[in-house]
Amino acid sequence: MNNETRNEITPLTGAPEHSALSRRGFLHGIGGLGAMVGIGGWTGGASAADAPKDAGGNIIPGFEKGQDDPNAAKGWQPVSDRKVRVGIAGYGLCKFGASFFYQNHPNVEVVAATDLDPGRCAALAKAVGAKRTYPSCEEMIKDKEIEAVFIATDAPSHARLAILALEHGKHACCAVPAVFGFEAEDEAEKLFNAVKKSGMKYMMNETSTFHAALYEKRVQFQAGALGRIIYSEGEYWHDGIGTLAGYNPKNGKIDEFGWRRALPPMWYPTHATAYYISITGGRFTEVSCVGTESYYPVFKEPANQYKNPFGTEIAFLKTSEGGISRMGVSWDMKDAHGEQGRVYGEKPHNRSINGSRPPLPPSVGGGGHGGSHGQLTNNFIESILLDRKPIVDIGDSLNMSLAGIIAHQSAMKGGEWMKIPQYDL
User: Which of 160, 182, 206 is the last residue of a domain?
Assistant: First the structure.
């Protein structure tokens, strides 16, 4: 096997760089992120009949049964017998709030659930075994029994709800991205300060972080096997996402004018930017980005809510190691699907290093997005129990997210190099 193949990263362990990936489903629900993008298994004791389905009755890609690692629990040891009391916000059409195995984790008690849609709120509570429900995440956060909140809501609400949870003395785990849109840089400052002031744990559920091949490279890098990373790439391709319906905060409904309509690709960057940040823990410092105008009509409308013409954006970034990264996000390329990346260091991949993902409790499956769901939940809960940094902490979360936000600004300015704000505790 040549050196290039040894250094590539894809969501399929052992797969060649250009392996075809199945089309990712992207469905939405009120209060639910609804983003099921990747490869994984519908596990945790559920049958195929329980798996989330699209309007045509097909299981949403990423939730097919039987793709979990049968040896995922091998070597697992409990770190505590304490149960963290968790509240979950957001269900949606993809049952997103229930798909991360909080209800199956031996160190979790799900005490509350919420979704803006009453029917889905009740369904979420039933799915996770929550003792009580609330009409909104804002109300649930006031519950003094809750120690930690999983925020699986629509992207524009992530930062606001995480800040509110932290201000109420609760640990916060949030779906991606950490900050969003025109207010992202202001949100980043407020979110960082809320984490710093509260002393609570904050984690962003970036699923690429626990893709098997990315995690293997993370272990390699931490062991010093790769040396300095000279060049890295990350890609998130999802044709049509900018044309889909989504939650519309103006009317509280799911419609074609929701938050995804004509969405700048680089406003949803973390499935790509994780392919450097989650490997090295380093930072993007500057970015230059170009975009191509989309042929989809929604990007050409004069009343485009984001004034965004681009369906594909490709960014070049400077790293804190002195290396270079290329990160791309696209909503309109045919035959291009999924999350993947490559990383190249000063030294070759060392096959003698075991880069397996951490073992999971026997009751917790790997789940969707390449078997990442259970890993993310276990890491967050153990960060609370062991008082350690989550694998995607506030610094990682903000750099992954802001790199894309600033990249889009650069694209709108014709590729001008722009600095990326730095946040680390």
Answer: 206
Q: Once rounded to an integer, what is the mean pLDDT over residues 388-415?
A: 98
Which residues, at least 6 apart from 387, have a Cβ–Cβ distance to it below 8 Å? none
Q: How many domains does the chain have?
A: 2
pLDDT, one tens digit per residue, over 294-338 is: 999 999 988 899 999 999 999 999 999 999 999 999 999 999 988
Alpha carbon separation from 348 to 216, 220, 342, 345 (Å, rounded)? 13, 10, 13, 7
370 contacts 277 by C-beta, under 8 angstroms: no
pLDDT digits (tens, 9 = 90+) for 171-206: 999 999 999 999 999 999 999 999 999 999 999 999
Number of neighbouring beta carbons within 10 Å of residue 286: 15
CA distances from 218 to 24, 324, 350, 383 (A): 25, 17, 12, 18
Contact 364, 296 (CB under 8 A): no
How many CA within 13 A on the CB side of residue 78? Answer: 10
What is the edge-to-edge ordering of all strands in the sheet holding 171-174?
Answer: 132-134, 108-114, 84-89, 148-151, 171-174, 202-204
Which two tokens mark 241? Answer: 């996402």
Amino acid at position 405, single letter: I
110 and 195 together in one domain: yes
Rounded distance between C-alpha atoms, residue 27 and residue 19, angstroms: 25
Could you tell me if 44 and 101 are in contact, meaning their C-beta atoms sit under 8 angstroms apart? yes
State whether 310 and 336 are in the same domain.
yes
**Alpha-carbon distance 129 to 111, whole Å?**
8
Are residue 174 and residue 268 in the same domain, yes or no? no
The per-residue pLDDT for range 62-97, each reduced to its tens digit, is 555 545 677 789 999 999 999 999 999 999 777 899
Give the 3-state secondary structure percentages of the chain, helix then strand then coil, rounded to 5. Answer: 30, 20, 50
DSSP secondary structure letter of residue 22: P
Rounded CA-CA distance 366/376 in Å is: 9
Helix or strand or coil: residue 390? coil
- Among the three residues 206, 236, 257, which one is the final residue of a domain in this structure? 206
Average pLDDT, the chain: 87
Q: Are 48 and 263 in contact (CB under 8 A)?
A: no
